[in-house]
Design a protein that fits this description.
The chain is α/β, with parallel strands linked by helices. It is built from 10 helices and 12 strands. The strands form 3 sheets. It has an 8-stranded parallel β-barrel, surrounded by 5 helices. Strands 3-4 form a two-stranded antiparallel sheet. The longest helix has 23 residues. The termini are far apart. About 45% of the residues are buried.
Length: about 290
């Protein structure tokens, strides 16, 4: 073989190896068909925690959402209220949920907030569940399991977002409310590990969400997007664009960062009849995205 051909062949092999490595490390992307207003927006099933998993899927679709984030412990259906939905579900229950998702044209993309065990065998059960359902990410606050999480992320190509609850004046050891702390946890880790940005809990901690997003730039895996009526711990949810959270600024910042994760509406108000307000939230994102050309 001529020298130049050997050289070219070597370059080809290097290119193939690099492409294979990239493919193994590429995040599990959500198909574009599930976008609304330029974002993958739907519901965190906890919004409908007074109802079943099947009803949460139906209500997400009725509100105009195309994706859903599950949480552990919700009852499965009206017909099987004693069956709880989580990552320990047997194959027949998982199949029932997948069938319901297909019927409603809703895609499951995330799961949490859930504890990730340090023990690899136990953590693997969680990631196997995520793989079986076809999830992009898992949401947790298990900082103590970061080494196990990183190993699982590399093995399964499933992302992990660290969630923030509000500041706890009675518990100074709780640090997840602080985006600087979350950044310190994830910044030297696999790039598929980052933040599940709960904007409402930042507002409850008297932080401005856009500032927090900028601190975590490039590390936003997903978001629990909320608009609240006031700054501080007593705030409650409102339809997007009617509160103090600066939803337009948040959406603009996410878009500028190239955010490609899911936005979950976690509406923790008017529990029994939140569907109209959830639909308003999705309508806001749809209209804002259309106006921006997204």
């Amino acid at each position: 073989m001529p020298l130049q051909n050997i050289s070219g062949f070597g370059s080809l092999l290097v290119g193939i190896a690099m492409a294979s490595t990239f493919a193994l490390r590429a995040e599990n992307k959500i198909p574009d068909e599930y976008k609304t207003g330029g974002f993958f927006i739907g519901c965190q099933a906890y919004t409908f925690n007074h109802f079943s998993v099947f009803e949460a899927i139906e209500k997400t679709a009725d509100a105009g959402g195309k994706v859903i984030e599950f949480y552990p412990g919700q009852k499965l259906s009206r017909e099987q209220p004693d069956v709880k939905w989580d990552h320990n579900a047997p194959p027949e229950i998982i199949q029932k949920v997948k069938d319901k998702l297909n019927e409603s044209k809703v895609k499951a993309v995330n799961y949490g907030v859930v504890a990730v065990p340090k023990d690899e065998a136990e953590a693997r059960k969680l990631f196997e569940f995520a793989k079986t359902i076809g999830l992009r990410a898992i949401t947790t606050e298990s900082v103590e399991a970061i080494d196990t999480i990183e190993k699982m992320v590399k093995e399964y190509d499933i992302m992990v977002g660290f969630h923030d609850h509000p500041r706890r004046p009675d518990n100074p050891d709780y640090k997840m409310w602080d985006p600087n702390y979350i950044l310190s946890v994830v910044k030297d880790r696999d790039p598929r590990i980052g933040s599940c940005a709960d904007t409402g809990h930042w507002v409850r901690s008297n932080l401005k969400p856009v500032d927090c997003l900028r601190i975590l730039k490039g590390r936003i895996v997903s978001s629990h997007l909320k608009d609240l009526d006031e700054m501080g711990p007593k705030a409650h949810d409102l339809p997007y664009g009617t509160g103090v959270s600066d939803i337009p600024g948040i959406l603009q910042e996410l878009k500028e960062q190239g955010f490609s994760g899911n936005i979950s509406i976690e509406y923790e108000y008017h529990w029994e009849n939140s569907l109209p307000e959830v639909a308003q939230c999705i309508g806001f994102v749809r209209g804002f995205g259309i106006a921006k050309g997204w």
